[in-house]
Amino acid sequence: MNNEVLVKTVSLKKYYEVRSKFLKRVVGYIKAVDGVDLEVGRGETVGIVGESGSGKSTLGLVLAKLLQPTDGRYLFKGIDITRRFPQSLRGKIRIVFQDPYSALNPRLRIEDSIVEPLIVQGYSRREAIEKSIESLKLVGLNEQHLKVYPHMLSGGQRQRVVIARALISEPEFMILDEPTSMLDVSTQAQILQLLKDIKIKKKLTYLFITHNLALARYISDTIAVMYAGHIVEIGSKKNVFSEPLHPYTRCLISAYPSPDPTIDWRPEIPEEIPAIRFHGGGCRYVDRCPLKREICTRQVPELIEVGKDHKVRCHLYRVP
Amino acid sequence: MKPLEVRRLSVEYLTTRGWIRVVDDIDIDIDERGEILAIVGESGCGKSTLGLAIAGLLPPNARIAGGYIRIFGKDAATNPVKVAVVFQDALASLNPLLTIGEQIAEIYLHHFKMTRKEAFEETRKRLKDVGLPDSFVDRYPHELSGGQRQRVLIAMTIAMEPELIVADEPTTALDVTIQAKVLLLLKDIVKKRGIPMLYITHDLALASHIADRVAIMYAGQVVESSDRYSIFREPKHPYTRALLSSVPRIDTDIDELYIINGEPPLPGSFPKGCRFSPRCPIAFERCFNEEPTLKSIAKSYIRCHLYE
User: Fold this and answer.
1) Where are the alpha helices (DSSP H) in A147-267?
2) Chain B: residue nearest A237 by CA?
3) Where is the ABC transporter domain (chain A) (predicted)?
């Protein structure tokens, strides 16, 4: 891995407006992504881990340029693409979603889902078909799969088609939003291996969004844990798993057992709260935190560096 | 008497192609009260159909084509048995128009013929059992989080005083932290009350910590069943071994996952011979021609020609 930074965000924010039922006036904001600073090196895989509502998927959509950020900056290869997205970078950032069943139009043959967009982009039909076949071969399918409809394929094959379609524009940065969570374990292993292989072959950089820590541990180089729109801990896989610092990271790691009944499983999980409360000041995790102190309710902690490749957003680790 | 004894059970569904066998020749047992048996398998292996058959909830287009289910010695086909089911989707299992209290109290009013006052008293006790406050009696399902709804379902389940609980992927729709709490609560409750439970899941890691015994299903059949220690420490069937090494682990770094080639077969097109043979790395000639039977080896049961 070299040191070139491919993707960089500075204090990236995405707020959703909350409107009143009557008159539809804006009465507040849901801060789905609230000031995310992220650097992704070329060739790196960053795993974004969090539970539902943490903002991980919204972050993915913003980075895929499918949502306009509310504030902050987004740089790709050093070019600011927060507001504008230059023609030359089109297709360099692609996203693959969780559900391969809804990602493909059930009334179109695979051919039409993959080849047509290329023709629109100005390729001749023959070139487009050649490129499609090449891409399908890369994901372990072949030209026969061009003629079938999505319902004739299994879930794993559909996800392969979706990946092939994403690869066709020769992307450099791929956002993978829970790409295997709808698949069976044996199919999941195949897709994960495929993603690892094409990453090397095509020199890709991944942002892997998942709620499954075991999966993140397997696929990522760097792990970022999100809670309520904030990155609460980020670091190399080794640091985060061998020495988790944030109380929420520890809670997440303890929540899922290893498949070994001889290892005692004692999850340390605080009370659940129906919805994350957005108060003015203070740490977002304070309502659930077992180690909270007085300062936690008053002041939002900063993301501070606690070691090489390890940052945490928690008052417990503040330098006095 | 055994809480659950299933022998040579087969279940078929009527489709446009005729009767298709989804569950085929299943033998499973729960030997003691409070014992948890996990049924682990991938989608389409028949684990949910097995659960529905035991609960007596098979849809009209399904039939039991062979074998029997005995619950505390009574044949489930001819005797009334009390089996409670906890499904994945708690919101679909609760009536959105009734308060939580009404829904739990209903069980006491109708099944146990209590007065309204007694019924609500019991209801409060059940809410306490699952760690919810009294005030939830007046709440509606939409006011609760996913984990709380699943707790309400567990409260309703124990209110019924069932002879057996079937929990079909009870926590799949929940976040990991909530999942851990709900599962451990369920385990605690069935152990304390001595209710036998069938826990249906696709998650091996969870099964290894929740269940006492584990049965692995593949293509409608049980391929291996054993106590939880043996199955995870010394898996014998090639499918069990492959499954265990194809899932990322949270406690160690794995360089490469084991890959099972191909896809699980669908009901109606199960391969000849051993059903795992086309994907098995060590299949030999006999595997492709002759179907293995479930054999008892020490405390385990294995359906594989390697162990004969």
Assistant:
1) 155-167, 185-201, 213-219, 237-242, 247-255
2) B253
3) 18-253
- Do A213 and A248 lie in a common domain? yes
Report yes or no: B74 and B81 within 8 Å, Cβ to Cβ. yes
Weakly modelled stretches of chain A, pLDDT under 70: 1-2, 272-280, 319-320
CATH number assigned to the domain covering B4-82+165-181+195-307: 3.40.50.300
pLDDT of residue A234: 98
Neighboring chain B residues of A256 at a CB cutoff of 8 Å: 176, 180, 205, 250
The token duo for A196 is 């690892």
pTM to 2 decimals? 0.92
Residue at which a domain ends, from A168, A190, A213: A168
Answer yes or no: do A110 and A232 share one domain.
no
The secondary structure of residue A279, as a DSSP letter, is -
Domain count, chain A: 2
Q: Quick: pLDDT tens for A61-97.
A: 999 999 999 999 999 999 999 998 998 898 899 999 9
Q: Which domain holds residue A152?
A: 100-168
Give the E-state strand segments of chain A in sequence order.
5-19, 26-41, 45-49, 71-76, 79-80, 93-96, 173-177, 205-210, 222-227, 230-236, 304-307, 310-312
Q: Helix B146-159 vs helix B116-129: angle between axes, to the nearest 10 degrees? A: 120
Which residues on chain B are in Cβ contact (under 8 Å) with A274?
143-145, 148
B148 neighbourhood in chain A, CB within 8 Å: 272, 274
Contact by Cβ (8 Å): B251, A241? no
ipTM: 0.89
Decide which of A119, A143, A168 is a domain's last residue.
A168
Q: How far apart are the C-alpha atoms of A223 and B63, rounded to whole Å?
A: 49
